[in-house]
Specification:
Four copies of one chain form a homotetramer. By secondary structure, the first copy, chain A, is an alpha/beta fold. Helix content of chain A is 42%, strand content 13%. Chain A is globular, with a radius of gyration of 19 Å. Chains C and D meet through β8, α9 and α10 of C and β1 and α12 of D. Chains A, B, C, D: InterPro entries: Aldolase_TIM, Alpha-hydoxy_acid_DH_FMN, FMN-dep_DH, FMN_HAD.
Chain lengths: 346, 346, 346, 346
Amino acid sequence: MNLKDVKNLARERMKGYCRVCKECNGVACAGEVPGMGGCGSGESFKRNYESLRNIKLVLKTIHDAKDPDTSVEIFKTKIDLPLITAPVTGSSINMGGYLTEQEYSDAAVMGSIKAGTIAMTGDSANPDFYIAGLNSIKKANGKGIAIIKPRENSKIIENIKKAEESGALAVGIDIDGAGLITMALNGQPVGPKTLEELKELTSSTNLPFIIKGIMCVEDAVLAVEAGASAIVVSNHGGRVLNNCLAPSDVLEDIAKEVKGKVTILADGNVREGADILKYIALGADAVLCARPIIWGAYGGYDDGVKLIIDNFKNELKQAMILTGCKDIKSIDKNKIVNLNKGIFNI
Amino acid sequence: MNLKDVKNLARERMKGYCRVCKECNGVACAGEVPGMGGCGSGESFKRNYESLRNIKLVLKTIHDAKDPDTSVEIFKTKIDLPLITAPVTGSSINMGGYLTEQEYSDAAVMGSIKAGTIAMTGDSANPDFYIAGLNSIKKANGKGIAIIKPRENSKIIENIKKAEESGALAVGIDIDGAGLITMALNGQPVGPKTLEELKELTSSTNLPFIIKGIMCVEDAVLAVEAGASAIVVSNHGGRVLNNCLAPSDVLEDIAKEVKGKVTILADGNVREGADILKYIALGADAVLCARPIIWGAYGGYDDGVKLIIDNFKNELKQAMILTGCKDIKSIDKNKIVNLNKGIFNI
Amino acid sequence: MNLKDVKNLARERMKGYCRVCKECNGVACAGEVPGMGGCGSGESFKRNYESLRNIKLVLKTIHDAKDPDTSVEIFKTKIDLPLITAPVTGSSINMGGYLTEQEYSDAAVMGSIKAGTIAMTGDSANPDFYIAGLNSIKKANGKGIAIIKPRENSKIIENIKKAEESGALAVGIDIDGAGLITMALNGQPVGPKTLEELKELTSSTNLPFIIKGIMCVEDAVLAVEAGASAIVVSNHGGRVLNNCLAPSDVLEDIAKEVKGKVTILADGNVREGADILKYIALGADAVLCARPIIWGAYGGYDDGVKLIIDNFKNELKQAMILTGCKDIKSIDKNKIVNLNKGIFNI
Amino acid sequence: MNLKDVKNLARERMKGYCRVCKECNGVACAGEVPGMGGCGSGESFKRNYESLRNIKLVLKTIHDAKDPDTSVEIFKTKIDLPLITAPVTGSSINMGGYLTEQEYSDAAVMGSIKAGTIAMTGDSANPDFYIAGLNSIKKANGKGIAIIKPRENSKIIENIKKAEESGALAVGIDIDGAGLITMALNGQPVGPKTLEELKELTSSTNLPFIIKGIMCVEDAVLAVEAGASAIVVSNHGGRVLNNCLAPSDVLEDIAKEVKGKVTILADGNVREGADILKYIALGADAVLCARPIIWGAYGGYDDGVKLIIDNFKNELKQAMILTGCKDIKSIDKNKIVNLNKGIFNI
């Protein structure tokens, strides 16, 4: 089984839910929510692609970073590369249903561990899906992170307790799910949170608490004040609000403000190793990855996921060699040029 | 009847006059005047689309705007959302004629009221069309606004009187119709107006007077001086002058100058709730909407129009939740980033 | 015979030499020299299109310019609109040969006069073509301008004398033809000129002398010093040097330097009335037009040319009404926004 | 045999390995490594094309540069134009194998000499290919340059000695090959070099030493410090690292720092004579050319290569005439406008 096989199988098994395009740019699947696309005219997904593509690497060949170390420590856990599997649910509704929800979450969690990293599991209008994720984390002896939809606080706290029981490394909410149509359609209200509500959540557990869906400096500062251990700069893959900015448009300003005070994760169109390097250079501590992991799971279960992540690791290493970064903390702004900003000096 | 049905029916009934494209961007219908397109090579319509698309929303999730109020008061009338149906005529010449002129204007006026807002009715080379609009306003007990082409002042004043008789809330002229080819072809001259001529019009009635077709600061200032109650920043959907700027290119500068002195309406490519939010953030008090209303009317008469507007309301509410706006007056420049300007700070 | 018929006939008669595309943007015909395209990869033609399209008009509706005067005086001759037919030769080699060279130049010269303006005639590797142009000018009692290729000075002066004999209003050289492949292939060397050589040319005649093919400030200043009466800002329709700037990229800077000292003509992708307004706003006194005139001639001889020019006149008038310009000298920088420059204030 | 024939034959003989597209822009062949494309999604190749296309020439027609001299002296060798054939290997793996490796390198070396310039030969995972190149150089009595992959220093020095024995004019390494997948796959490790390692290489030979693959100012300065005679600003045709900047993005800054201290060669998407002029204007002393040379070799062996280079020479001369450059050292920044920088003054 190689990468090409996995992608071909995934394409076949996803029956058009995802076309596994040559360029995963949000064009073919625009509007497919449920499904794999961006919502509305798909402009947020497309901007995620476009903005990240406009960030260019500075090739560098004279240095001694011949065998870079790609590992990082996140939530006191060493992982082999700064990439964590993103929380994804809805195998039937979004991906075509070739895998059951449990099969999908097992593949994501186990494949990630096999590849030397960890996965987040998700929540959904169907509460069974959250349980499926916890089941996978339990099987992995707690090596996983449970992400809960921004439901009423009492419901979230209930779910946090279940995550603690499963031994999860960390918990959190994907507050960017506040506008998810599928949740509302199923009578399970979600919404934004106030600072006070967030404080109640972070103080309800001893686990590191993650707030996913931060897209402006003001919210990043509030997340820190609320006691979050980590934020995820994410617009939910362009699936909740059409026409918004990309994570790579806002990450640099956010990092300028909160770097060091909170773990910064970035999520959006990570499709190759160089994308990880770009997000780290913009200020992230690690990235999340969703769609390629789905291809891995659909194309080859946990081994498919491992293959996908191993490939990211190789590509990242190669990109680090060719930009002169001997380890992740050596990756800084000098390694990239942001053409989105229009002006550049090398 | 749902939105998809309405659009499909509209596409069928409009027989190619409008293709109801996935992206309504002015490409397929370029040059189709009469018809639904922009004039000439369609560049003004295309720029309207492009400029608005380049204005991005700032996703915000930590706040207490959980149930935003979308209502506003315009011309002392409370409407459920800051969207007014634009004046449109020519059901046969522009839309294919499945609806009679009277059916179209009834659908627009009644559907708008059913959805909690109001419609403007229009004027045309065929003077019967203006009467059709007034008929609809009468049926609605005056809940509507009559917009008159920029004919000779005496002719306009005559039409204003008729509008007063129909009980209309307000009247106005779409001065951007000054170059309409279809009017000239029918021997009904239209043209620009001097300040003095505008003063004569505004002082001829006690109704609020609207000047539609303001695209530069200088004209906005003159409109205020002429005694207008409202201006509409509009290039007539790109149908009168090829190659001109988009409303979203000029709105911010205009609002800087006249906001508060006059009601500012914006008109151009409003296709989803987020577009309303963008125009409000740039300085508008409300927007006009034309082509989607036509789809509603052609796809389902007044109920189709209501469905279209209700959908805008839901989308706007969702966009307000995800940008943290508890009411319309909370929507300001911090909610958007204008990529047309090339530089941005979040 | 209407505009559509003329274009359709032209398309048919040009047998693919020109496709008379919906958008005349240099894409379909890239590399077709001989033919109607830009040379090489066609980038200069494409840039001409793109740069001009990025210049936008400021719609203005409150003013008294209800019946603008489009006329100007050029070379002491009043013309009905600031558009002169560009010098074009090679009916067989470039256009497919449906018209003989003499038929083409007659149509261009006579059609222009019928429409209230004048034409330039051209020169070519085949010296008969220059004579054909002079024949047309003679038939028109001298109402035309003879443009000569940048041959050796002695040869040019010989041709100037012939033009004088034909009674031409003015003469000149299209110095941008310095790199024409077709000339070199036929053993008729052309080339750039020094200041001294230009002085010899301007002082050899009492007629106004035009230098066509000025694309930088330095050359514009030299042209004035050489005694030219007029310059044409032109890159020869993108047909001599691939990858160069567009006339609309350089015109403003050139006008800043030499406006008033010399008549400034602009040449490049004039396809509708608004394009004339744009070039005037950037600093031109009038424009040249080539490809549409060819369509007119091929589609309807002199009457086709007249139809094309009359249409330009109507469109220009309309554009002047909608931008508030009562005459050509009222057209200034405030009427346009140049998006090529990236920043704008209305 | 003419240029068109050569390209058609090449297209046929390369059996899809290269489509010899109308525009060689990296789109059709994206990801084809091995093959002729850029690696990954091909973004680096595409950026090379796009960045260079955005650099425009300033057409100039009033001057005395009527018969420009295109020759330069590089490595104390006078060549007829500032273009050197780039090192390329892998006729079977990358080009389809119609030519044997020896046939390809003979065509490149001999064709270049026939056209008045010289070629670089390359190195590969298959060590025989390096020998093939040296064979060609030997046949040419040493008129060629041997470029070695960035292997271990001892291996490079061994190869330098062989190059000296073949009489090569100069030697070097293509350090941008540090990440070549094909090398790693064949167990022949390559990598970046430290300053000390480079010093060891430059001091191991009396031949001029070239470092190919410099893409930032810092590396350019280090190359000078290491004792290099020349650098090549190159991203290996976009074949080693996806998403990096183009040579034309970085050349100007590099030249500002090291011009005069080291010979600067530029490599990337040279497809016509004007491209040479652009790179020289940005600061290069000469350019390398790869893909068109391959078309020449595949379409017509050494005569095909000569035809390609002769055409470059003619086009360069033409571009120099039309920009007013009487010799290569007259080509400076005033001859171009870099639209990548967004602002321009002529």
